[in-house]
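agent> step 3/5: call structure_predict on target 'Disease resistance N-terminal domain-containing protein' (Dendrobium chrysotoxum).
agent> reason: downstream docking stage needs a structural representation; sequence fetched in step 2, passing through unchanged.
tool.input:
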Amino acid sequence: MEKFYELFEVDANIGAREPDMQYMKEELERLRENHSKIQAVVFASSQAHIRDHNPALNKWLWQLRDAIDEADDVLDELEYMKYKKITDKK
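tool.output (status=ok):
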């Protein structure tokens, strides 16, 4: 998750300035739009006949899977924070 905070330039307390928040929203939307495509590529390229013949590809696929898991965690956390903010206002 630290990689995403660095990427989006967001403080751990999510106290970012408005331009940073807009950039983060745009990046998150782009991530949401491409998430299923990325997963499809991982699935297709992880077939045994491809993976077993190319160790470098196999290593890269594991790194990509880790990045996908990390992105999912960040999206889940941001969604939780959004709903927490809504419920705290009530």
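agent> step 4/5: record observation. The first helix runs from residue 2 to 8.
agent> proceeding.
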